Amino acid sequence: MYGLKKRLNLHPGAESEEEFGHYFVGKHLSILRFGIMVSIFLFALLGIDDIWAAPVSKHETWGIRYGLMVPFLLLSYGVTYTAMFRRHQQTVMVIVQLVSGSGSIAIIAVLHPEEPASYFYFAGLMLILFANFTMFGLRWIQATAVSALLAAGHAAAVFFAHNSSHFDVTHVLYLSHINGNLYVLSTLFGSAVVGYVMERYKIVEFVQRKELERKNEVMERLSYKDGLTGVSNRRAFDARIAEEWSLALKNGRSLSLIMIDIDLFKPYNDAYGHLKGDDCLIAVASALQSGLKRSRDFVARYGGEEFAVILPGVDEDGVRGYCAALHEAVNRLGLEHPASRVGHVTISAGVATARPQNDQYRPWLEAADRALYESKSKGGNCTMVG
What we know:
Blueprint: H1 2-7, H2 17-45, H3 49-53, H4 58-79, H5 83-87, H6 89-110, H7 122-134, H8 140-161, H9 172-223, H10 234-251, E1 255-262, H11 265-272, H12 274-290, E2 298-303, E3 306-312, H13 316-331, E4 347-354, H14 362-377, E5 383-385
Parallel strand pairs: 4-5
Antiparallel strand pairs: 1-3, 1-4, 2-3
């Protein structure tokens, strides 16, 4: 099927085919339900025409209309609200339209040749063929296959059920059946062109939407990344801290925060220049990232030479182990620093741990910040708990 769609230029790409299918269903669902309700109304209403157009056969046509088709369409309408329908929409609607079209053909087949207006009944099938491509959410290939089968079924019904082959080419009934088949075929071809254009438009719309989403996603990711170090930035931190606090409040779990500052960073910049200072920030950010253990552990550049680490579900005992690992990761860098008492770049850390009781997390942030200040006031290269 994919190969045929590719040849007809009716595919959004192999990796997007399933997603486009769900998109297609979503775009058509309300129209599809409306179409089924219209079909029910028309099938029921046109039974009035049977009184004058087919008085001899009206009981047979009413049996098909009210005994089979209306209940079947009502059942089909109910199915559109099931989870199964969203997974198998094309298959379900192929069945619905085949049965609906077969119902119209069956009505034509049971009509007696002497009916006053039996030749008018092909118009009902024309409506179904047009609806296959417009209202009932069928992809173009499925709609074409169903419509071609119904057109062939109509031709068979009028020529065999009505024994049209026994009439010569001048007979009125023969000419009316020829005329009806031509109208049905014209409707099939015209509707197929309309349906093809509509599906191509939806594919183009879908592809453009996907490309726009991709670009927006890239832009959003970039807006949450620190341009220098590659870790998350302050904007990302603000969003994440609110999210994690809310989750911790909801789940009744601990949440820890480590505020980190590179010790004596200004003297480092003065000694080596800003380019080396940038290299130092990048290296420290990478070391901090590598010191985290779980996928939800989060590090961000908070500003300048300051970083922040968010640790969901980590209590005070656990956060001490994290701090030791982060200190060790930075120490292993061995970045020479003449102003440092240990001869290389180190970090200071301030820790705050909480089990949220309300939505106010600012005091918690301030506690971590105070602990960091205390750590630096003690000469740095250590961790203090707020």
